[in-house]
Design brief:
- The structure is a single chain.
- The protein has eight helices and twelve strands.
- By secondary structure, the protein is α/β, with parallel strands linked by helices.
- The chain folds into two domains: 48 residues, no CATH class; 205 residues, 3-Layer(aba) Sandwich (Rossmann fold), CATH 3.40.50.
- A seven-stranded mixed beta sheet has the order 7-6-5-8-9-12-11, with helices on both faces. Strands 1, 2, 3, 4 and 10 form a five-stranded antiparallel beta sheet that branches.
- Helix 2 packs across helix 3.
């Protein structure tokens, strides 16, 4: 790390405001610490770029093909997004849905499949243009500033984007602004308790690996719930084990069996630290 000067990133914990922390991982261009007060893992020092540099970075990542692979298995990804949106619809009667960090539009298409007015927003002009070529309503924006009027949406999807926020508080405030009263937020983020984040340094994952540049905060189930509640959301579901509506007795039986299986799997994954992501549904208070 000689010759590389790290500047302050988060000068205090973005969840509790605490200033006492323990080092988790230091790399050439960033350092992550764990707050001694609440346990949140966050980037406290980094070689800091501007928001414009962030946009250029994500544009290059998509354009150079690292994420072009996301266009493969398109139907599978859309089907997965449909279930995630339906989990949110369990708690709200929705007409309009927004996918934040929409990439190539999987959740936008999933919303359309479910009969919703569906929009997407992404920092990358490249993927926004790709979405528009597919006929989707897509816009360039950041987590902290999106080009929509107050209360426009009934449901917002934020899948693996909140960890990218330079200000989680501003990102959640913006999501809350865009939600109608009683609207629902669906959130997925990496689970900081995943074992490879702490004991597999040789082939590091997450903030110990290359994702440490673009990720700024890592959550546990407890810190994610606290972050949501602190910014005006009530948590309604804490895992993918959500029973979805079904129109037939066979469908309802299948959903019950599916719920039991996912609940068991999620519980075991939590205990063995093999759960890679957290999945929460929260409503705007």
């Amino acid at each position: 790390m000689a010759g590389v000067e790290l500047a302050p990133f988060f000068e205090s914990c973005p969840l509790c405001g605490g200033t006492r922390s323990a080092e988790e991982s230091t790399q050439e261009r960033w350092r992550f610490v764990r707050c001694e007060g609440c346990g949140l893992v966050f980037k406290d020092r980094a070689v800091v770029g501007s928001a414009e540099e962030d946009s250029a970075y994500y544009h290059a990542e998509y354009a150079e093909g690292r994420k072009a692979g996301r266009q493969q298995r398109y139907g599978h990804r859309v089907a997965k997004a449909r279930r995630q949106i339906r989990a949110g619809l369990r708690y709200v009667r929705a007409r309009r849905v927004l996918d934040v960090g929409c990439s190539y539009g999987y959740a936008v298409q999933a919303g359309l499949d479910l009969g919703l007015e569906s929009s997407g927003v992404d920092i990358s002009a490249h993927v926004v243009e790709a979405c528009r070529e597919r006929g989707y309503d897509a816009h360039v924006g950041t987590l902290e500033q999106m080009p929509f009027e107050d209360g426009r949406f009934d449901l917002i999807v934020m899948k693996h984007v909140l960890e990218h926020a330079r200000s989680p508080a501003q990102a959640l405030a913006e999501a809350r602004r865009l939600l109608a009263p009683g609207g629902v937020l669906v959130v997925a983020v990496p689970d900081v308790e995943y074992w490879k984040y702490s004991v597999y340094e040789a082939r590091a994952k997450g903030y110990r690996g290359k994702l440490g540049w673009e990720h700024h905060v890592y959550y546990s189930a407890r810190t994610l719930e606290r972050m949501l509640e602190q910014h005006g959301f009530q948590v309604r579901a804490r895992s993918k084990a959500v029973v979805l509506p079904a129109s037939s007795a066979l469908g309802r039986m299948w959903e019950s069996l599916r719920w039991a299986g996912i609940s068991l799997w999620q519980g075991l994954a939590r205990l063995t630290r093999t759960r890679r992501e957290l999945f929460f549904v929260a409503s705007r208070e």
